[in-house]
Specification:
By secondary structure, the chain is of the alpha+beta class. It has three domains: about 110 residues, no CATH class; about 45 residues, SH3 type barrels, CATH 2.30.30.60; about 90 residues, Alpha-Beta Plaits (2-Layer Sandwich). Helix content is about 50%, strand content about 15%. The protein has a five-stranded antiparallel sheet with strand order 4-3-2-1-5. A hairpin with a 3-residue loop joins strand 7 and strand 8. Helix 1 packs antiparallel against helix 2. The termini are far apart.
Length: about 325
């Protein structure tokens, strides 16, 4: 008959200590580490998915784009081509926004899970966060409004960096769009910071195309048909020149007589121009029309201007 020796107190104590230490190590080290690894894996997979969606959206926006932006002649075709570029920029901006939101959510949840696994009671923390959130909700309503407006501005692609916009409070070129404020530099170089929550209307002069309008005076007795043919020939020549590829979207057209006075007849010439080249296109049209009128002998009347005090030909002040 074999007698098994009873375990000693020291052996039982050692076994208990090792078991307790093992449980503690599993709870405080292994489980949080596994949670972090899972969070990183999910973050990587979602990041790849968002990147793939963004690339597909950019590819769809650029699909079947003509080699030259001046090829379409109809306004709707031209708008579709130009807005394709805006859709590419919008897809990239939304991809960055989704990546930021996804990173915040994944690692925020991972942090809460790790705190629970190491034995930290997060119930009081969540309760305190709820109270603080309510207090901040009342005290920072404008801040929340700014952030929500910024998200919708990016998602709806109302404007972006480089666009010339009229926001009511300021008009100029957009330099930066953040979730809280929009930074604009006006024509005089002044930088304006406009809160997104205060933007009630947006006039974007850079989406799609703009219209350059030129009114040219000619003598009252000039032949309008001859003037129209000259304007059309100028438009055809400008459309064929490569110097205007980045300025004009299509052939300048003769719109007709805009107004008639006792001294002159004003004819209007219009042309679709690049979003940021409206003034440049108008100046180029005036220059080419002036040269063509001089060559064809079209007389431009001298319009009477009011004499200002001190100018040549004005009567002296008493």
């Amino acid at each position: 008959m074999t007698v098994t020796a009873a375990p000693t107190i020291s052996a039982l104590l050692s076994e208990t200590v090792f078991q307790t230490f093992g449980n503690w190590l599993l709870r405080t080290a292994v489980a949080p580490l596994v949670t972090i690894l899972i969070a990183v894996t999910i973050w990587w997979l979602l990041g790849r998915l968002i990147k793939r969606i963004t690339i597909d959206a950019v590819r769809r926006a650029s699909k079947d784009r003509p080699a030259s932006l001046r090829r379409p002649e109809h306004t709707q075709e031209l708008t579709d081509v130009l807005m394709g570029q805006r859709r590419e920029q919008r897809a990239q901006a939304l991809g960055q926004l989704l990546s930021s939101v996804m990173t915040f959510i994944v690692f925020g949840l991972a942090l809460l899970i790790v705190m629970t696994e190491v034995g930290i009671d997060i119930a009081p923390l969540l309760a305190s966060a709820g109270v603080v959130g309510v207090a901040l909700g009342f005290g920072a309503q404008t801040l929340v409004k700014d952030f929500l407006s910024g998200i919708f501005l990016v998602m709806e692609d109302q404007y972006g960096p480089g666009d010339v916009v009229d926001l009511g409070a300021a008009t100029g070129t957009v330099e930066e769009v953040s979730l809280r404020v929009t930074r604009i530099r006006d024509m005089s170089g002044v930088v304006w910071y406009v809160r997104n929550g205060e933007i009630l209307r947006v006039g974007n002069r850079s989406q799609g195309w703009t219209m350059a309008v030129v009114d040219v005076p000619i003598a009252y007795n000039e032949d309008l048909d001859r003037v129209r043919r000259i304007v059309e020939s100028v438009g055809t020549r400008m459309d064929a020149e490569t110097d205007y590829d980045g300025i004009l979207f299509g052939t300048p057209t003769y719109a007709g007589v805009e107004s008639v006075s006792g001294d002159a007849v004003f004819v209007r010439v219009t042309a679709k121009a690049a979003p940021d080249q409206q003034m440049t296109a108008a100046r180029a049209l005036r220059e080419q029309l002036k040269l063509a009128f001089d060559e064809a002998g079209i007389r431009v009347p001298v319009l009477q201007r009011p004499n200002l005090p001190g100018s040549a030909g004005s009567p002296p002040r008493p």
